[in-house]
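Ligand-bound model needed. adenosine-5'-diphosphate.
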Amino acid sequence: MTQSVIRAVDVCKSFGDLEVLRKVSFELNLGEVLCLIGPSGSGKSTLLRSIIELETIDSGGVYLEGELLGYRAQGGKLHRLSPSRAAKQRQHLAMVFQSFNLFPHMTVLDNVIIGLTVGRGVAPEVAKKRGLALLDRVGLAAKSGAYPRTLSGGQQQRVAIARAMAQDPRVILFDEPTSALDPELVGEVLEVIRDLASDGMTMMVVTHEMQFAHDVGDRLIVMDQGSIIEEGAPREVMANPVHERTKRFLGMMQIAG
Ligand code: ADP
Ligand code: MG
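Prediction:
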């Protein structure tokens, strides 16, 4: 039986006159890896940022395990949740950014556990133990005391993934996690994501790594100009794209890759 983790319904978002998301709807089920591709500016980052409420959507809704994010229904109306209630919901959603976003003045271990100690009041020794186990999982146990600037981009991104996992989230959203990396460092990060996938982590991954989407993705969504124009099994969509714009985009990707 499939169990919905994220359900987006008719999500709309504009920046001024620019319609960035036009009634975007999709579902992400438990244990699924949903890959998202599309040309630059098509709204991929805005979609992820809207799910995690870094952007406020104009209309539509995002549900986490059936619960509407950011609002509660009362008396037939929707009311915005208090910041603390909204933050509690968001704890279940983790995001990994293209640019790692680690705190430069904190050690690797502190970066991983700051959300636990300061954010959730987990005892330091408990958080530390968990943080070290997660760093071990991403192959960086030996770097726990190092500062981010002394790490390669690939290592920094693996720290960011460990930090996301420390949240014990229901879903991890990845926004082009390997786009800022030198080509030789891409593989080590994709390997960690692949490992999470085989462990059953529910994930949504914006990526231009077509081989990864092909091998690891359970489903592929293609966005263009704020809409989902195509959706299906990755190998199906790649082998037999229906939409002319998908064909063009995939053609470009092949040349680029
Ligand atoms: P993608 O991630 O697919 O490249 P984005 O979601 O980043 O696309 O951006 C979609 C469109 O929204 C682009 O035209 C971008 O310039 C615009 N945009 C994104 N964020 C903002 C913002 N904060 N203010 C104004 N325009 C924005
Ligand atoms: Mg983007």
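The chain has a mean pLDDT of 95.
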